[in-house]
Amino acid sequence: MEIAKNIKYIGVDDTDIDLFEGQYDVPEGISYNSYLIDDEKIAIMDTVDARKTNEWVEKLEAALNGRQPDYLIIHHMEPDHASNVKMILEKYPNCTGVCSQKAVAMVKRFFDVDFADRLQVVKEGETLSLGQHTLTFIMAPMVHWPEVMVSYESSEGILFAADGFGKFGALNHPNSEGMAADKLHGTVEGWACEARRYYFNIVGKYGQMVQNLLKKAAKLDIKVIAPLHGPVLNEDLGYYLGIYNTWSSYQPEDKGVFIAYCSLHGNTEEAALKLAELIKDNSDVKVSTSDLARDDMAEAIEDAFRYDRLVVAAPTYDGGVMPIMQDFLHHLSIKAYQNRTVGIIENGSWAPAAGKKMHEAFEQMKNINIIEPIVSVESTVKEKTVEDLKALATTLIG
Ligand code: FEO
Predict the structure, then answer these.
(1) Which atom of ligand 1 is found nearest the CA of 163?
(2) How far is the CA of 80 from the centre of ligand 1 (A)?
(3) Which string of DSSP letters, residue by residue, matches 265-321?
């Protein structure tokens, strides 16, 4: 599978992983991408997760066809890509690892072997000629770890983008109905859903660093984006670059209201769903809801960032807010949630405290417009509650 002349895809799909990074549900699996540039000098572009070492080595050896690689380009040291760095450097004694300065210490930390004499450190703008192909290295710290770099192959215009432009989902998976027949290459249709969930949950905290990388990328003539997860992108690049600009600048992608709720006995849920109904009945504003205790948390985070308006609804619990809502708020906080309008619904039967706690959490975030007053449900939804929800719906509709 070539992504360009003499540049092969040698990545692998992981379709039986239960949780990526030990926490993210991946119903369509994930791919660990790796590439081989076959030139006067042969370069391997990253390795793969230890879960798929054997399958990857088979592909690598087939592509090498008995030859020895000259370089292993290490864009990112996270184990889903770098698990096999030690194995490759030991298996091919003439292969030089190429990485950023920060990656050198990480190689030692992960493998407890000092490969210093086997690693070639590259700096911003440095180039490596392989023959017909030349790589230019661009530092991309915190996209998504501090040692990350990307590289640009100038003869074909390929940006090897590390985690950037990655997405959840194996390239070939039985659940992946409707994907393009050529599953190596991505299409705009359907790409954003799992790319957005991946971006906000994994890279989302580092929007400014992604912005810095996008500014550098704008100076390059990019024809192909080759990420470390998900399909290779070789058409409609303006779409992907544009949506990454929106995401990394923390601007909403869509107009709409996302209602995230949790409920002990169904009463807070009733209030949340009543609000959704009131918005739908009185406007064409898009509404999405999530029961935080039952639905995927990573998807709730994705939707909170996707829309320009958010409503949180939770009961009081142990003098604070129900724990799953606390967890949601914590996720928003660490992912630098900002620039949104937020409505709050609390429930309490004797000493309501959830609203105050949720309010305090949003006060700590940047540029959040909190709709006042908080809607306070007293145990069950009553006529007065519906009136308060109507007022909240009217403000949200705008
Ligand atoms: Fe796909 Fe940050 O590793």
Answers:
(1) 1
(2) 6
(3) SSHHHHHHHHHHHHHHHH----EEEEETTTS-HHHHHHHHHHEEEEEEEEEEETTEE
State yes or no: pLDDT of 315 exceeds 70.
Answer: yes
What sign does the dihedral 171-167-238-34 (CA atoms) show?
A: negative
| Mean pLDDT to the nearest integer, 315-322 | 97
pLDDT in tens, 351-375: 999 999 999 999 999 999 999 999 9
- Which residues lie with the beta carbon below 6 Å from any ligand 1 atom? 76, 78, 80-81, 144-145, 163, 228-229
Ligand 1 atom at minimum distance from 145 CA: 2
Does the pLDDT of residue 150 top 90, yes or no? yes
Index of the ligand 1 atom closest to the CA of residue 144: 2
Total domain count, the chain: 2
- Ligand 1: atom nearest CA of 162 is 1
Amino acid in the structure at residue 312: V
Q: 114: CA distance to ligand 1 center in Å?
A: 23
Assign residue 170 the CATH number of its domain. Answer: 3.60.15.10
Which tens digit of pLDDT belongs to each residue from 225-241? 999 999 999 999 999 99
Both tokens of 279, joined, read: 């918005």
Write out the residue range of the structural domain in which residue 327 sits: 256-397
The last residue of a domain, from among 223, 248, 273: 248
Instruction: Give the distance (Å) from ligand 1 centre to CA of residue 22.
Output: 13
Same domain, 194 and 260: no
List the structure tokens of 51: 């879960």
Q: Please give the average per-residue pLDDT across 134-156, as a whole number.
A: 97
Same domain, 305 and 193: no
Q: Tell me, what's the pLDDT at 179?
A: 46
